[in-house]
Write a structure and sequence with these properties.
The protein has 223 residues and is an alpha/beta fold. The chain has eight helices and eight strands. The protein is elongated. The chain starts with 5 loop residues before the first helix and ends with a helix. It binds adenosine-5'-diphosphate and magnesium ion.
Length: 223
């Protein structure tokens, strides 16, 4: 795959494509795919959480996520606010960027933990020396590799297709990394198919996350 280096594939790595509604995982060991899995959790849930918690239209939540969202909240955001389109009597309202990022962090960590569980269940968590390479639209959420390193304790970087100069403005984006890899694979045609390992569909119980979101929700309520 164009997104990974030879070194990463040889030493063990998980290519994680976090898209809109699904996250797909391909674990490489000794140069080839050893396992693939798919989770029904991805970027749409981040948008859904924002829309629900901030009581705003879905489109407004999506724009907020992509333009101002970060995968972790820190004190530097305390005084920052963003104007968004809202429901109700006022067409627009101001929200705290700190709160926005807390909501995103809670769900991002939930997704990352599900990825960790899936790789661990398959038996590869300790053998992916190169950690995670993140692709797909949701990998563009700012700070996501840092949250992987902090929460899961394994290296992470954004995957960008290599060696496709000329279209770099479009193709250089991680959102395109997996399609490019598949095209490259189809064109070469001699590799083994990427379905070498068992593929599972897996959903996390949402209990812990809902508790966390509920406590952020209480903090967002007017005093
Ligand atoms: N800058 C960004 N920050 C956070 N999420 C983003 C950003 N850009 C795109 N996304 C999210 O990426 C997801 C779509 O990813 P994509 O790989 O195109 O989807 P899929 O391959 O599943 O169709 C959407 O949930 C979208 O909100
Ligand atoms: Mg995608």
């Amino acid at each position: 795959m164009s997104t990974l280096t030879e070194q990463e594939r040889l030493q063990g790595v998980a290519l994680v494509d976090i898209g809109g509604s699904t996250t797909s995982i391909a674990v490489y060991q000794e140069g080839t795919v050893a396992h693939t899995g798919c989770l029904q959790m991805a970027g749409q849930q981040l948008t859904q959480d924002l829309a629900q918690m901030l009581r705003c239209p879905w489109e407004s939540a999506e724009a907020l996520k992509c333009e101002h969202g970060r995968a972790y909240a820190d004190d530097a955001l305390n005084s920052e606010t963003v104007e968004i389109e809202a429901f109700g009597t006022q067409a627009r309202k101001s929200v705290s960027l700190r709160n926005v990022c807390e909501i995103l962090q809670a769900r991002a960590e939930e997704i990352l933990e599900a990825i960790e569980i899936e790789i661990k269940r398959a038996g590869y968590l300790d053998t992916i020396a190169a950690g995670l390479v993140l692709t797909g639209g949701t990998s563009q959420l700012k700070g996501l590799p840092e949250v992987v390193e902090a929460r899961l304790g394994i290296p992470a970087r954004l995957g960008e297709p290599r060696g496709y100069s000329g279209l770099s403005d479009i193709i250089g984006s991680p959102a395109y990394a997996t399609p490019i890899g598949l095209v490259e694979y189809a064109l070469r045609g001699q590799d083994r198919p990427v379905t070498a390992g068992p593929s599972i569909h897996f959903e996390m119980p949402a209990g812990g996350l809902w508790k966390r979101l509920a406590s952020i929700g209480r903090a967002l309520m007017p005093e």
